[in-house]
Design a protein that fits this description.
Radius of gyration: 23 Å
Structural class: alpha/beta
CATH architecture of the largest domain: 3-Layer(aba) Sandwich
Number of strands: 25
Shape: globular
CATH superfamily of the largest domain: ANL, N-terminal domain
Strand content: 25-35%
Distance between the termini: 56 Å
Number of domains: 3
CATH class of the largest domain: Alpha Beta
Length: about 525
């Protein structure tokens, strides 16, 4: 039994214990059934596509049971799962596939148009459709093979992976706005799970809603993998639906809520919030942004404590946690480092700042990633002497509580999605009428933050904001599109000659929200 075959172990320990409930059709899967499905899929991947240790398998799909099957099947083979953000345009997916060079692309029928729009090099990539025929019509639907037996006549044995082997590549944009593939090892997954179990005091009786997208570290590693290790239960939802979440709390015995504040606010604003059964909910955890005090009080009135957390793809999503008792007293704080996390702040001179002073958060521990796929320079920049430079600026108060105060590279969070201005700027500046663009995040009551794009047109060019909004919709994911576009004759410049984004933020805030 190896580090990459949790289901094989769970089959021995708790075979009939319920593991996953699929809310789309009401089906319930015990650990033994999940293990059987993953094993059959692993056999098919090996027999029909020659997938083996170290091979990448990319997946373009929404939340569905076959995605979970694929995750565990890749683990049994020692293959590397590469979740793709299905909100990206074809050009963005092209970049990811060019980088990771997968052996196989698995996708849903609903993304067939995106798959067909991939450029020639990616178009030749073998594909397996989850809910339809294969690329050439010869392969069965992936959803059907989990009930098919292997044709090789032998007993399947899972590959014996090492803890340092890469289990997943999760793409996160870097300071240049171009995608970087974070190599998530089995060690990171295990220790993130342990941090979560210890920090949140999880038990095998915990049950959660699983509706975060599976191209995110949050979808996989906030609660899913910790509960699979522990023997808990998840209710898989195709997408977030606030009223449906409220409805499921009682019937499914949900014990922990998880989401960004926007999601929790939408649940509170749903018509059935007052009637929802919160009797078994122990607490709610949230991240991505701080939670407004009125929302904390709304859930407190229903007996639900709010716990803010902090993490990132490169270190796992569960690195810090605010004790529930401090939700009001320390509102806005991410709390303390979790049990197996070493953390420190460092100012620009490399010194540790005093209480209330700003420094960059750095972390060390077995929960860190192995670096960026095919990108040694970026890996060296992120990992220095065993410490991860997060790029997040924080303060620590006299009691040791940490607070996020800014982002070193101007990244902002809109509806729980990380948005990197340089990527939006790059796409805007590809428009022939745009000479220069600068994008900043501004506070937004609904989404936490939204983008404000300042655009300088090329000499003699003419374009209006509606045309640029349409350009953005064609070339960017919806969450990347700026909410407002402002035309300027010139940009304020700092002493270095670069655009002074602080001035732009001040201007954007003074202009108000769209």
């Amino acid at each position: 039994m190896s580090v990459n075959d949790w289901l094989g172990r769970r089959r021995l320990v708790t075979p009939q214990r319920e593991a996953v409930v699929d809310d789309s059709d009401g089906r319930r899967y015990c650990y033994a059934e999940l293990d059987t499905r993953a094993t059959r899929l692993a056999q098919q991947l090996r027999e029909h596509y020659d997938v083996g240790p170290g091979d990448r398998v990319a997946c373009l799909a929404g939340n569905r049971i076959e995605y979970i099957d694929l995750y565990f099947a890749c683990g049994k083979l020692g293959a590397i799962l590469v979740p793709l953000n299905h909100r990206l345009p074809a050009a963005g997916i092209d970049e990811l596939l060019d980088d990771c060079r997968p052996k196989l692309l698995v996708h849903e029928t609903c993304f067939a148009e995106v798959a067909a729009a991939l450029r020639q090099g990616c178009a030749e990539l073998p594909r397996w459709v989850i809910d339809g025929g294969g690329a050439s019509g010869h392969a069965p639907a992936l959803g059907d093979v989990v009930t098919a037996k292997s044709t090789d006549g032998g007993e399947f044995r899972a590959f014996a992976a090492d803890a340092s082997d890469v289990a997943m590549i999760l793409y996160t944009s870097g300071t240049t706005g171009r995608a970087k593939g974070a190599m998530i090892t089995y060690r990171q997954i295990h220790f993130n799970a342990l941090n979560t179990i210890i920090g949140l005091r999880l038990t095998e009786d915990d049950a959660v809603l699983m509706n975060m997208p599976l191209y995110h570290t949050g979808g996989w590693h906030v609660l899913f993998t910790p509960l699979m290790l522990l023997g808990g239960r998840v209710v898989l939802q195709a997408r977030f639906d606030s009223a449906r979440c409220n409805h499921l709390l009682g019937p499914e015995g949900i014990t922990i809520l998880f989401g960004i504040p926007t999601m929790l606010r939408m649940m509170a604003e749903a018509d059935n919030f007052a009637a929802a059964d919160f009797s078994r909910v122990r607490f709610a955890i949230f991240g991505g942004e701080s939670c407004p005090l009125p929302l904390i009080e709304t859930y407190a009135a229903r007996g639900v404590a709010m716990r803010q957390g902090y993490g990132l793809t490169e270190a796992g999503p569960n690195c810090f946690s605010l004790p529930a008792a401090d939700a009001v007293r320390k509102q806005g704080s991410i709390g303390f480092p979790n049990f197996l996390v070493d953390a420190r702040l460092s100012d620009e001179a490399g010194r540790e700042p005093g209480p209330g002073e700003v420094g960059e958060l750095q972390m060390r521990g077995p929960h860190l990633f192995a670096g960026y796929w095919n990108n040694p320079p970026a890996s060296r920049e992120a990992l220095r002497d065993g410490w991860l430079a997060t790029g997040d600026l924080m303060t620590r108060d006299e009691e040791g509580y940490y607070y996020v105060v800014g982002r070193k590279q101007d990244m902002y969070v809109s509806g729980g999605e990380n948005v990197y201005p340089s990527e939006v700027e790059r796409r805007l500046q590809q428009h022939p009428a745009v000479a220069l663009a600068a994008v900043v995040g501004v506070p937004d009551a609904k989404w936490g933050e939204t983008g404000r794009a300042f655009v300088q047109l090329a000499a003699g060019a003419a374009v209006d904001d509606a045309q640029l909004h349409e350009w953005c919709r064609q070339h960017l994911a919806p969450f990347q599109c700026p909410a407002r576009i402002v035309f300027v004759d010139e940009f304020p410049l700092g002493t270095s000659g670069k655009v002074d984004k602080r001035s732009l933020v001040q201007r954007a805030v003074s202009q108000g929200t769209p």
